[in-house]
């Protein structure tokens, strides 16, 4: 095995590669509860129990781990430490941190990794069993070596810096399904959950990569507030987080009857799912007088397109 680091003139180690990040839901079908957790999570250094690491290398790994940026909840990342050439074999050894922000232990499995240059061009591809990296503790960062053989590299022009190691995810084969926020999961009757799930499965799924809004119910209360329930549909293979949702509502006459912006708190829609949510327009945002809700539509203002 090659050394972990090349000696630098000033004696300080340096992260030679960049970082790539994926959702733990995409990679492992795993998430952890984000309630009460920090939005930015630092990872603690963790060595494989079979690794015999010198004090000098331990210091270097600790120094580099502190240089890594925090992760968001439910993320797995690969942070490039070093890339070293084995001239005799024509291979390269890539050392990277496998980082997890989940608050539970994880184990990786067989996966395909790609080696990319700074322009996202694929330099090499390798399928390997990362289960050998062992149990990765909660919110931790584990250094690991991955060797690309001459046959797994597509070029001999491999840069020593500015590269990136990334997971190559397979397209999801899951059916588009219902995703309920915890508050809805706890308060909604089982019958209503089943009806929603059946409706989501009957509908044509959103186009790949598309996020759209579908109206479910609109009711004006006695105090003048307008309650609009929408189905937010994520056709992407990635989880989506919405922070600001500016909405406009039109009634049966095509008249704009309500308009307003909603600030969402950690509001995510998982990959390939639809999530219902009720938006409440206070009476001050609602047009005075009679509103015909026999038919209506609501849509994000910036798109200016009905869904």
UniProtKB/TrEMBL annotation:
Residues 1-11 have a biased composition (Basic residues). Residues 18-31 have a biased composition (Polar residues). Residues 34-47 have a biased composition (Basic and acidic residues). InterPro entries: Sec_acc_SLAP, SLAP_dom. Residues 1-47 are annotated as: Disordered. NCBIfam families: acc_Sec_SLAP, SLAP_DUP. This is Accessory Sec system S-layer assembly protein.
